[in-house]
């Protein structure tokens, strides 16, 4: 089975304040369903209040992320699933719950990790 990253950038979740509580409840329900199904690995949201730093091999710390890369924020879940079709189904459930499209990526398999 492969591990899939299901995620969305913070800017994608445009939800009215009145709907935010329901979206939170619904997304947590999908995560609980993934846990009950035994496919949940881990997930959460990036804490935008903590500044990003880049750390080089010699231990040098540089404020900010890669200048050419996209900002990594928003929420994510990692699920271990038997197929891409199953991953699409879970991504659709999270998209409905979060009220925004989800990006789906598969992790490269590394038998040593």
Overview of this protein structure:
Residues 22-94 form the YCII-related domain. InterPro entries: Dimeric_a/b-barrel (IPR011008), YCII (IPR005545). This is Transcription initiation protein. It is a single chain. It contains two helices and six strands. The chain is of the alpha+beta class and 113 residues long. It has one domain (2-46, 72-106): Alpha-Beta Plaits, CATH 3.30.70.1060. The strands form two sheets. The chain has a four-stranded antiparallel sheet with strand order 2-5-1-6, covered by helices on one side. A two-stranded antiparallel ribbon has the order 3-4. A hairpin with a 5-residue loop joins β3 (53-55) and β4 (61-63). α1 runs antiparallel to α2 (84-98). The chain is globular. 17% of the residues are buried. The model has no long low-confidence stretch (mean pLDDT 93).
Computed Rg = 16 Å
Quick one: CATH superfamily?
Dimeric alpha+beta barrel
Structural class: alpha+beta
Beta fraction = 25-35%
Low-confidence stretches: none
Mean pLDDT: 93
Instruction: Output the helix-strand order.
Output: EHEEEEHE
Globally, the shape reads globular
Q: Helix amount, in percent?
A: 25-40%
CATH fold type: Alpha-Beta Plaits
> How would a crystallographer describe the biggest sheet?
4 strands, antiparallel
What is the end-to-end distance?
14 Å
Count of runs of 4 or more consecutive helical residues? 2
Lateral strand order in the biggest sheet: 2-5-1-6
CATH architecture designation: 2-Layer Sandwich
Q: What is the tally of beta strands?
A: 6
Tell me, what is the CATH class? Alpha Beta
State the domain count. Answer: 1
């Amino acid at each position: 089975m492969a591990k899939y990253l299901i995620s969305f950038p913070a800017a994608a979740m445009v939800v009215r304040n009145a709907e935010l509580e329901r979206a939170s409840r619904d997304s947590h329900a999908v995560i609980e369903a993934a846990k009950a199904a035994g496919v949940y690995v881990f997930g959460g949201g990036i804490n935008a209040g903590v500044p990003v730093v880049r750390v080089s091999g010699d231990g040098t710390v540089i404020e900010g992320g890669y200048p050419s890369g996209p900002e990594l924020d928003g929420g994510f879940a990692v699920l271990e699933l038997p197929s891409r079709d199953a991953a699409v189904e879970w991504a659709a459930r999270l998209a409905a719950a979060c009220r925004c499209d989800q990006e789906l990526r598969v992790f490269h398999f590394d038998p040593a990790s």
